[in-house]
Write a structure and sequence with these properties.
By secondary structure, the protein is mainly α. The chain is built from 13 helices and two strands, in the order H-H-H-E-E-H-H-H-H-H-H-H-H-H-H. The radius of gyration is 18 Å and the shape is globular.
Amino acid sequence: MFGYVRPWRDELKVSQDRDYQALYCGLCRTLGRRHGLMARMFLNYDFTFLAMLLDGGRPEKSRERCPAWLWCRKKTCAATGGLDEAADAATILSYWKLRDTVADSSFLKGLPARFLSLLLLRGYRKAAAARPAFDEVVRSCLEELTGLEKENCPSMDRTADTFARLLAAAAPVTGEKARDRAMEQLLYHLGRWIYLVDAWDDLQADRQTGAYNPILARFPQGADRDYLRVTLRHSLNLARSAMALLELGHWRETVENILYLGLPAVEELVFTGRWKAANHRDRRQDP
């Protein structure tokens, strides 16, 4: 995933911000416990959002030493089923994203991703064994997406739908039809939003390298910014409607902050060309 799904921290209550930081650190520890040190290297805000959706309860926190800053002890959420499921999904997605990079690159350019995927392989196998159905959906959707890219598919909807279906499968089926349908729709429309925002973010680089970009394929004479902003707004509104049907417990206000404030702020940064600088700055200030 891509790191776009984050809260607007200035509008979080102090207690909400502390809990969000503790969840971020708790997911990091869960990734390490379940899938090894390498899995921790792929932690980002997107996976923390998924952990919030899958958790729901008030976090139990303890103070633990941070593996990145050994002199620092941080408050960390205790392990829960939601964190375990998010860690499994995160590892599967990270592995297949690396393999997709290898497939899309020349031998030399693909070497870093090939090396990282080998280091992550053991953790991926454990995650895939825990969530085989999700692993199969990710593999199938990425193969479908690769085929669409090779034929230079001019339909943004087809390519975005493929990635959206991939993300929609991240939530385990509980058997509660209303809950499962709402969660699927929330993740589907969020996945569509992520895919199209990322396409705009990569627009100039893909134009220079000749790499496939769904926006360039749809608008070869020049991207229609207004059209894309409207379809992104539509996806966000549908994600918000699905979220309103879910019981999110302790994390509802933080999830609402992300969908109503965080994502629009990220979108504005991407469309005004300020995202990469802002993201680089935030990475140095991660929880």
